[in-house]
Amino acid sequence: MPEKSSKMRAWKEEQILRATAKLLVTHGFQGTRMEDIAQAADIPRPNLYYYFPSRNHIYRRIINDLRSEWIRAMEQITVDKEPAEAIRGYIHAKIEYSRKHPAASRIFADEVIRGSGILTEAENEEIRKLTDEKCAVLESWMDQEKMERVDARHFFFLVWGATQYYADFEQQIKNVLGIKRLTRAHFNKATDTITRIILKGCSLE
User: Fold this and answer.
1) CA atoms of 127 and 196, how far apart (whole Å)
2) Smallest Cα–Cα separation from 77: which of 134, 131, 141?
């Protein structure tokens, strides 16, 4: 496929994915039809099938893209980095995803609440193995007395909950702050606050 055509396809797919994510958050999977997606993405319905053959394919792509981004964020946690640097980078990456893709994050949260039926056992196992690997990195830092000894898995649960809250419960945050939308400044403040609290709790600041 020529580079120009490839870029156009990628752009169109992203347009469809973003439109679908917004519909899914509002109407759920059962309430979102292909014709609704085509209209929201401003694309003729027959053309939509050129990019995705069904709602299931779009839904799964949204989930898989999110998993890929979260796995990429985990790459911040490596033994060759200092703990504070790695944790700071990881929190920043997670908050940035919440800022840029709040709808996808809410869809994934709903999927997990309903039992993660869309994920295969192999995909769930991949997440478990990756978490185990990153827990081992934290434990190696603890063994070297580079950071306070904490339960590594609950460390990650804490980071996930804190960072994803800004996407999954965005409306509640806006209500409490009395604002109509979250700006980059709000996310920057969230990143700074979460990072300081976690680093202090791990005796890294």
Assistant:
1) 27
2) 134
| pLDDT reported for residue 3 | 66
Degrees, nearest 5: CA angle 69-117-76: 20
Closest C-alpha to 156, from 186, 132, 175, 140: 132
Note if the pTM is more than 0.90.
Answer: no
71's tokens: 């796995």
Query: Please, what are the averages of pLDDT over each run of 10 residues along the chain (205 residues)?
Result: 76 93 89 93 92 93 90 94 97 96 90 76 89 98 96 97 95 96 96 97 92
Element of type H or E holding 6: helix 3-27
DSSP line for 47-61: HHHHH-SSHHHHHHH
- Give the pair of three-digit tokens for residue 162: 């804190």
